[in-house]
Amino acid sequence: MKRDTSPTAAFQPAAPRGIVEGLVYVFERVMPDPFVLSICLTFVVAVLALLIAPTGNVPTLLDSWYTGTFGILAFALQMILILATGYAIAEAPIVQRGLRALAAHAQTPARAALLVFPVVAIAAWLNWGLGLIVGALLSREIARRVHVDFAWLVAGSYSAWSICNSGLSSSIALSQASHGNALNLVEKATGHVVPLTETIFAPFVFIPTVLVVVVMTAIFIKMHPKSDNVVAFSDAGDTSDDASSADPHARSSDGPATFASRLEQSMLGTLLLLVLGVGYLAMEWRENKFDLDINTTILIFLLIGLALQRTPIAYANAIRRAARQTGSMLLQYPVYGGIMGIMKGTGLASMIAKAFVTIATPATLPVWSYLSSLIITLLVPSAGGHWAVQGPFVLPAAISLHASVPRTAMGVAMAENVSNMLQPFWAVPIVAIAGIRIQRVMGYTAVTFAVSLVIYAAALWLVH
């Protein structure tokens, strides 16, 4: 008899792993498309703002929604560029060969988890965009070779990626370390920047970061569905690896060479951009010492991608393929910008933050900052935008209470790691590249949410 490989096949209420399979079952049937979910969240936030926010009247709500919707566009482009430039690096031939070589070592589901978690976590720690891309592409390569549940594997990649807000591309940590950054709220309040040694390299951040990766690797190995319930990867109709089909505008290498084709295939254009980019970074870091912010991160990944892709046309084709994966983000960013605007403009976010701050002490403020961030992140799933909303309330409290400013700020960032496991906003690119429905993935990452929630809270409270 033919085995049922439909999404419902993984749900077996009587199985020992019934809790996890039950979560997958619920998410598949309850959770709508992420864009539809963002609209639902807009409705919920608007109703809450009108009912309980300090300035929750209709004119303020509408004005705040409009301001937020279009005020996020510059930041949205930055985030999409991080993803696109990360995609271009991960799609470079040398990186692809490396991913295939890595995938060859994953011969069982357990080995797949042992491979995916550290590789994706390291990539995500270096850059969140690179982590998303590496996770999706590595999952596909492994799933082509191993009889493994694909949703489980992609969920493992996304769970490993979750530590990104504790890494080098953490917008909260980077902005507080960047002199003159618009989101450097610490500098505006105290006149000082917070170096990365006090945030992402501090023990209370890197210890739980490593612990989440290790613990979730072990848990995911235990969570893999039984062989009869595995829904494997199918690449039928998949053309993502075919550059010509992915880019209908690409010129064929057959036929007579033209001036345009020679220019496209020449490395001179790449070398020009590399000289400009490397020259600027060398000058900037010599004059103002080494610094990383969102724009320099984008520039570095642009330069690396250009160097790996070698020719301008190869890089342009890679970015075109990346654009196919970022379309859903273009839809969702303005909607979440509107939510952010409503929460900030009507005072709803400040009300949530203040409710936790008023009961805090110097020792407990970072934990209360973390808990309030968990709620706000579900509605504002962008660390930079979230920080702009919550930072102005938790930082003055930290200063007045003489609490740890770095710990309070990173409490917000660490909660981003946790809430992203229930908020599908950042899962959209990885599932789009992997080619799988997001609902099955979120059923597994709900477990990551619960486990990492405890680990990060304990670290904020106990690790010094």
TrEMBL record:
Keywords of the record: Aminotransferase, Membrane, Transferase, Transmembrane, Transmembrane helix
Species this protein is from: Paraburkholderia hospita
GO molecular function: transaminase activity
Name listed for the protein in its UniProt record: Serine--pyruvate aminotransferase
Pfam families tied to this protein: SCFA_trans
GO cellular component: plasma membrane
Domain of life: Bacteria
Annotated transmembrane regions: 35-53, 65-90, 110-138, 200-221, 266-283, 298-318, 330-353, 359-380, 443-463
